[in-house]
UniProtKB/TrEMBL annotation:
Protein name (Swiss-Prot/TrEMBL): Lysozyme
Gene Ontology molecular functions: lysozyme activity
A UniProt-annotated Pfam family: Lys
Protein's GO biological process: defense response to bacterium; killing of cells of another organism
Domain Glycosyl hydrolases family 22 (GH22): from-to ranges: 90-108
Length: 138
């Protein structure tokens, strides 16, 4: 019985563990998902400012009661559904944005950007308009 409990705890630990990308791993992932090279430094800065390059990051509750999810900190008020059914503008669940496979998160982030630009993210507005990270070695 004790060993069954330990297996259960270990399984939960594995599910809770998130991926923290290095800067160059993030650049490689974003290139593979079609992010434009001329905006790559902005995207990297945004992700570093919003989630510290961590896939499973869930932000604190915002003033309006909404939350931000995942690598790109996608907001659940408009973009992802907090139920088990995909929905809202990105047609995903918020949990879909917390996986190490960033395919759905990348697609949704690009949709947010297409509508609102980088100004949709406070992390970018507050930290990325002066200097952008160096990705020349990536």
């Amino acid at each position: 019985m004790k060993s069954l409990f330990l297996v259960f705890v270990f399984a939960i630990f594995l599910q809770c563990e998130s991926k923290k990308f290095t800067r160059c791993e993030l650049v490689q992932q974003m290139r593979s998902h079609g992010f434009p090279e001329d905006k790559m430094r902005d995207w990297v800065c945004l992700v570093e400012s919003e989630s510290s390059r961590t896939t499973h990051y869930v932000g604190k509750v915002n003033k309006n009661g909404s939350r931000d999810y995942g690598l790109f900190q996608i907001n659940d008020k408009y973009w992802c559904s907090n139920t088990s059914t995909a929905g809202k503008d990105c047609n995903v669940t918020c949990n879909d944005l917390l996986t190490d496979d960033i395919t759905k998160a990348a697609k949704c982030a690009k949709k947010v950007y297409k509508r609102h630009g980088f100004n949709a993210w406070y992390g970018w507005k507050n930290k990325c308009q002066g200097s952008l990270p160096d990705i020349s070695s990536c």
